[in-house]
Amino acid sequence: MKRDAFRKLFFFTPPTFLSINASTNVHSYISIKDNDAPNLLISTYFHNKHGWLFIEKLSIMADGDVILEQDFPHSGVKRDNSSIGVEESYDFVVAPQQLTALRKVSSTTDLKIRITGGKGYYTLPKDRVKEFKEDIRQSILIFDAIDKAVAGKIPTTETKS
Fold first, then answer.
1. Residue 23, pLDDT score
2. How many Å apart are CA 33 and CA 23, to the nearest integer?
3. Out of the domains of life, which is the source (predicted)?
4. Could you give the dihedral angle defined by the CA atoms of residues 59, 65, 68 and 70, in that order, rounded to the nearest 10 degrees?
5. For the chain, percent helix, then strand, then coil, each to nearest 5?
6. Taking the CB of the first residue and of the last residue of the chain, which one, N or C, has fewer CB atoms within 10 A?
7. What is the model's pLDDT at position 34?
8. Which helix (H) or strand (E) holds 37?
9. Segments making up each domain of the chain, as ranges
10. Which helix H or strand E contains 8, and what residues bound it?
11. Could you report the average pLDDT of every consecutive run of 10 residues in the chain (161 residues)?
């Protein structure tokens, strides 16, 4: 758990989370603003030694069906260039229908994850997909535990007005 006092946010990551972005990956985490409900987020990170992909979309396929497609607004993608290559990243809040679909992911799900960009696409290798499967399942458990703990104890949209 981390705290950002300036933004009044807590961040929770599953035990499988690696904080160092050493290679292209997709992972999940939870944020919760003071006196608010939790959000489940997915972070897409692309690293390449040879050039940009200009990431635009994340797609997740489970057992042959696309269960999540998220477009990235060009202005929202973070990009950096260093001596070890280029980095592109984008984090987004998982929508309720996306969460429902992600709840079906299990250790036996045949999962494929693709990052699409203006210069082509990158499909995550099996080891990264395996990490994501465990990561998302653990994040959903954490999300559900926090959501249950704060239910009825935080102001809803209706009571904030």
1. 85
2. 29
3. Bacteria
4. 40
5. 25, 40, 35
6. C
7. 86
8. none
9. 2-154
10. none
11. 81 71 87 90 94 97 97 95 92 96 95 98 95 94 93 62 40
Q: Which amino acid is at 67?
A: I
* Stated length of the chain: 161
Cα distance between residue 88 and residue 147, in whole Å? 30
CA atoms lying within 13 Å on the CB side of residue 78: 9
**Of 150, 15, 148, 147, which Cα lies nearest the Cα of 94?**
147
Question: What values do phi and psi take at 129, rounded to 5?
Answer: -65, -45
In which order are the strands placed within the sheet that holds 65-71? 65-71, 55-62, 111-117, 120-123
Question: If 0-12 CB within 10 Å is exposed, 13-18 middle and 19+ buried, where does residue 107 land?
Answer: exposed
Can you tell me which residue has the tokens 């409900």? 37
With the CA atoms of 9, 14, 19 and 23 taken in that order, what torsion angle do they form, in degrees rounded to the nearest 10? -130
Q: List the structure tokens of 120.
A: 């082509």
In degrees and rounded to multiples of 5, residue 144 shows phi and psi of -60, -40
Q: Torsion-angle region of residue 137: left (phi > 0), alpha (psi -120 to 50) or beta?
A: alpha
